[in-house]
Amino acid sequence: MKLLKWLISSLMVIVLVVGGTILFINAKYGINVFDVAKSLGKIGQMPEVSVVAPNAPVDADKTATMNAVNSSIAGLIQYDAEQDKYSVNTSISSTMSTDIKLSGAQTCVLLNWLLNSQETMNANIGGKEVNLKEYEFTIVQIDYAEGEEGAVNFNVVMSINLTKIKEKMTGLVLGWLKGKVPEKLYVSSTVAVTKGEGALNYSVENVSLALNNMSGKEVNEAIKLLDIVVKSGTLTDFNKNLGKSFVDALIGNEDTPGLTYSLKSAGVNDFAFEKVGDVMYYVMKK
Q: Could you tell me if 99 and 283 are in contact, meaning their C-beta atoms sit under 8 angstroms apart?
């Protein structure tokens, strides 16, 4: 998850640095600073969660996720009734009995449990180590849809609470930027996942990226500016890496162990995306 932490910290840099940087950008970078300045206002506008994440999980998805997983690999998900907390038991000795089929909402729930199992989630922001858990980093939605040429469009929406950052923004420049920083930053990343030949073989390509109410060309200009500040790469590279970090966390391989790969010892041999009716599922296959 190291790449994910760096990418998330870069997104926070957009909010904190870009507004002050646009005043110094030369035309040689091919960026219309006036358009960027206008677009930044959209980051500061809080979007409707039902709009940016219409398929976000509900409470019932927690029980459904636990049942879907534990009915195949007994004890993999544990629940502490006193703390009302779910966790992933990584030291199980159970063997997989059937395929595990998860909807996007159930996958979202499961990956959040994995993140919450970590005591800290540190990222370097402005030269300082910051625990993203203190900023309520959350995966708000994971959704699957049919893509082009047999690919599956994998969408992940994440949120970061920026209240603590706003409280620390004082002085002339930061004080001016404070009003442009939203209470929360919602990032919606969509990538295309193509299943390759052989077990746990896949490729990932960029599709689209949105930040709060900002999308399309506006996001592209913002990422160009971010590339100047922190060398994040093009929008295509940036979003591909961002989306791939979540795909890797879910699937994984020998180089980047993810949840599915880590369960090989329990009998998981491969993965697939399967559509049943109007619903697309992620399947860990026996």
A: yes
* pLDDT tens readout for residues 233-276: 788 888 898 899 899 999 998 888 899 999 999 999 999 999 99
Reported as half-sphere exposure (CB side, CA atoms, 13 A), residue 218 has a value of 16
Proportion of the chain in helix, strand, coil states, percent, rounded to 5 = 40, 25, 30
Q: Which amino acid is at 151?
A: A
b/e 93-117 (16+ beta carbons within 10 angstroms → b): eeebeebbbbbbbbbbbbbbbbbee
Convert the pLDDT of each residue in 121-178 to its tens digit.
766 555 556 677 778 889 999 999 999 999 999 999 999 888 877 776 676 655 666 6
Tell me the whole-structure pTM to 2 decimals.
0.84
Residue type at position 189: S
62 vs 205: CA distance, rounded Å = 30
Put residue 233 in one of left, alpha, beta given phi > 0 → left and psi -120 to 50 → alpha. left
